[in-house]
Amino acid sequence: MLKRTQTCGQIRLEHAGHAVTLCGWVNAYRDHGTGLIFVDLRDRDGLTQLVFDKEDASPELLEQADKLRNEDVVAAHGIVRKRDGGPNPKLPTGEVEVVVTKLEVLSKTANPPFLPSDEKNLPNEEVRLRHRYVDLRRPRMQEILKTRHRVTKLTRDYFDEQGFLEIETPNLCRSTPEGARDFLVPSRHQPGQWYALPQSPQLFKQLLMVAGCDRYMQICRCFRDEDPRADRQAEFTQIDCEMSFVEREDVMRTMEGFVRTVWQGVLGVDVPAMDRITYRESMDRYGVDRPDRRFGLELVSITDLAAETDFNVFSQALAKRKGVVKAIRVPGGAEKLTRKLTDGYTEFVKQFGAGGVPVAKYTGPGGAGAETGGFETGIARFIAPIADKLVERLGLEPGDTVLFGADSYAVCTKALGELRLKLAKDLGLIDENKWDFLWVIDFPMFEYDEAERRYFALHHPFTAPNPDQLDAFMAADKNDPDAVEAVVSAGYDVICNGSEIGGGSIRIHRQDVQSKVFDLLGLSEAEAKEKFSFLLDALRFGAPPHGGIAFGLDRLVMHLVKTDNIRDVIAFPKTHTGMDLMSNAPGAVDKAQLRDLYVRSTYTPEAKS
RNA sequence: GGGGCGGUAGCUCAAUUGGUUAGAGUACCGGACUGUCGAUCCGGUGGUUGCGGGUUCGAGUCCCGUCCGCCUCGCCA
User: Fold this and answer.
1) What per-residue string of b and e applies to A50-78 under the rule 16 or more CB within 10 Å gives b?
2) Which nucleotide shows the minimum CA-to-C1' distance to residue A227?
3) What is the ipTM of this complex?
4) Rounded to whole angstroms, how far apart are CA atoms A196 and A198?
5) What is the pLDDT of residues A352-395, one digit of tens each?
6) Å: A343 CA to B36 C1'
7) ω into residue A365 within 30 of 0, thus cis?
8) Label partner for A506 (CA 20 to 30 A): which of A327, A376, A393, A566?
9) Distance in angstroms: CA A14, C1' B12
């Protein structure tokens, strides 16, 4: 076999006169008949033009070249020279070509389902996934794989410099309550017993801190058997970190440095010091716990003003528990927001439980709606009594539109938060070249679930209360939801352009505090002991204060390569229903395999509900 | 589990209100051509219109079911 001397992206004018051997795939061929054939050869690195010319090539070689087709795999040996026919400015190697003297066809291809060279005519994703090895040949996909590698390399280097040890943790774990649905693995040696694949290495990394490892990191696979989304996959990768003898600030400083290192190393972008905002502020102003601040359209509470109106929609909302009325000012909305758009918004917010979106246009004091305080259309007459105050609070200018939300705090916040994002997209307000990073802190420890009539940990049950909350937390009566829900944790999320790229907390390192959390979550002492005795024991036997974070590697890469499809950044991803279309996983297994595991399927086509 | 969109040559798409033999580009096969780089020109192969049922004289088109893909709500401590 001809041995490669360079890659297809490396050849430059300085190599002119050199003999080289390139290996790769036929990206394109241009056959001018007996005597002149061009072939673009592609590998991971780039493209180089090969030329077969009867003045330099034997008839046998020309015949070989004549048969080459797209995606054949070849090794070509020849002399580099400046192109005869003028350079191709589209290629880094566009000034040179290789005059081939020897060609070896390493692998003749069957007609491929699609051509990696034809980026403009991409087949649908199903075809791409079924023939992933072809799809991954595309330069764009190679670029993404390289970026992902670059990120993991930067990650290991950064944390190594910061004194972290990379330590592996088990993939066959014990199922623990709370959280996502587990993927389960039956045990052969322990009939009737099951492992769970880790949702995250949470407990193990805490135990490593108790074990004196001081600083740990791992790039690890996590599994959550829930329905995916565009940015979520059941099997995904975390950059998992934990540090001992630290407070919240220490972790945040270290992790901010990590983000800065990655953005600098991959994109050359300087990430400035990150703002911090509280969970409460984020929910109030942006309607989500992961605000996108690349544009305005903030939510403004007008609950107090709404009480002064006779508007039914407002008063019904205010009658609810924690009822609120909020508004979004859309600058210049009178022109940009068509009736069709605003009608669509009413439908849009219904999926979040809201009733609709009242709309008012502000025309100014001299405008068409003079008798209703400068507002016109729809609800103008209802808000006339508070017109002046509304103008002042929202900072309205003539030509603005105001969109209202009125409901319980939870519903109104969610609906307007989602509407804010939709507005920004519809109006093209998002600057895709902007980077906005921030920390969201001071999350509540618990949320009360009305349906299940119990508390849930907002982050996870090992999150510590913020130090200034510790006494209040330990004293909180579990029958007093207001007291419990008021406790703020030592958790933190890193947000990039409105998406959570990482989240963590200072952990509980005192057994009495951990027991109190389990108690609030409704875990009896016996249950807690059964499920978590190893953790509670560890906390008894000398646990250092510690805390950490986990970044979503897939999401980091998604941002860095500007894609909104998580499957693009995973070499072999799964579909919406958890199938690998290439290997056809999951699949049936032998009865004998099941028997060994003491497992019998109850599945019948009818049983699938 | 709910809602939405989609499935027609290998691939990307088209096909008046239901109406003749389902077309085009590209890939592939054959031929022509010495400076291309989306090469060009000529010819050709290629179809269970996802699958099953129904309505109809007649279904790619309408109806029901089902499978697959994507988006989304729920879910994701």
Assistant:
1) bbbbeeebeeebbebbeebebbbbbbbbb
2) B75
3) 0.93
4) 6
5) 989 889 999 998 876 666 677 788 877 888 998 899 999 999 99
6) 55
7) no
8) A566
9) 41
